[in-house]
Amino acid sequence: MGRFLLDEIKAPGARALFAAETVKVKRRPGCDVSSVVIRTGCREEEVACDRLLIAAGPWSPGISRALFPTARRDLPIHADTGSYSMLFRFPQITIKPDCRNKSVVLRSEGQHSLQLMMRDDGLVHAATVPPVTLDLGSAAANGRIERIGDDLRALEAEIQSLLSVPSEVVLRRACFSPVTESRLPIISQVPSAWLDSECNGIHDDERRSEVFVLGGHGYWGIAASLGSGKLMAQLMLGEKTDVDITQFSLESHSA
Ligand SMILES: Cc1cc2nc3c(=O)[nH]c(=O)nc-3n(C[C@H](O)[C@H](O)[C@H](O)COP(=O)(O)OP(=O)(O)OC[C@H]3O[C@@H](n4cnc5c(N)ncnc54)[C@H](O)[C@@H]3O)c2cc1C
After folding, report:
1. CA 20 to 30 Å from 195, out of 30, 94, 228, 253?
2. Ligand 1 closest atom vs CA 214
3. Residue 221 near ligand 1, beta carbon < 6 Å
4. What is the C-alpha separation between 7 and 1, in angstroms, rounded?
5. Are residues 170 and 194 in the same domain?
């Protein structure tokens, strides 16, 4: 699907930049965004922009703060739900072909259960169900990273004692999801009042900005991606959306 979408984007002549960071927004009077400065490695380029969509998952609030430093409000997307998972190899067990791509949920002693998924390549993917709540706070803080390491080791020991067969861990993983307080996603145009409008001399709080935000899909962002993307495109193009998206607006999220 990713490859298909990328081809569709490139077909009409659009350029996709990878490992690129939008570092600055330029504005002109009466307009919240007129161009963006994009950094790729040590190269910076300015690209004209009449509508800007912020869709950077849990990084969206940070990006919005960096691009609009005097914004009055933060985007209400958080990164406080996480999940641990790991890949196991069981050298003494051969997974029968008819068991592959099937999963089983085992009840464990702790507060969660374990989901084991037998993969095509003979490895077993193990994850906690429901996902462990993981307050990342500042992800860069060492204390939290050590805690994630401890939690992963505890999970590994739990799986090994539950299955009581020799195993090797191939991969350990901890990740987090963009969530909102209501657990509904945001598909919204940003009201001008959310951004710093004073330097533009605009004091009309009702005005909609040229900035949009899409995110906060929690654990369903892949399943909801095509529908959300279509609704977002309709909103950005000023078309009637296929469904009523009032409940996904920033105003509803901050009500
Ligand atoms: C373990 C796990 C399992 C999951 N399983 C499922 C599932 O089975 N089904 C499902 O529907 N969903 C699932 N999800 C949830 C899904 O992955 C998310 O909901 C989805 O990825 C959110 O999409 P997003 O585009 O909003 O954010 P992201 O996927 O986080 O994308 C944000 C992007 O912004 C980029 N970015 C960050 N900063 C900048 C910057 N300054 N400039 C430019 N780009 C930037 C990041 O590199 C990233 O590529 C799962 C999530 C996890 C963690």
Report:
1. 228
2. 26
3. yes
4. 10
5. no
Rounded to the nearest angstrom, the distance between the alpha carbon of 107 and the centre of ligand 1 is 28
**Is-cis flag, bond preceding 130, omega within 30?**
yes
Residues 25 and 113 in one domain: no
* Cα-to-chain-centroid distance, residue 212: 16
The C-alpha atoms of residue 182 and residue 234 are separated, in whole angstroms, by: 24
The verdict on 70 and 93 lying in the same domain is: no
What confidence tens digit (pLDDT) does each residue in 36-84 have?
Answer: 999 999 999 999 999 999 999 888 988 998 999 888 888 999 876 567 7
Asked whether the whole model's pTM tops 0.85, one would answer no
Provide the residue range defining the domain that includes 155: 79-176
Query: Is 249 found in the same domain as 186?
Result: yes
Say how many residues make up the chain: 255
For ligand 1, atom 25, which residue shows the shortest CA distance? 57
Q: How far is the CA of 178 from the centre of ligand 1 (A)?
A: 7
The total number of structural domains that make up the chain? 2
- Report which protein residue has its CA nearest ligand 1's atom 15: 219
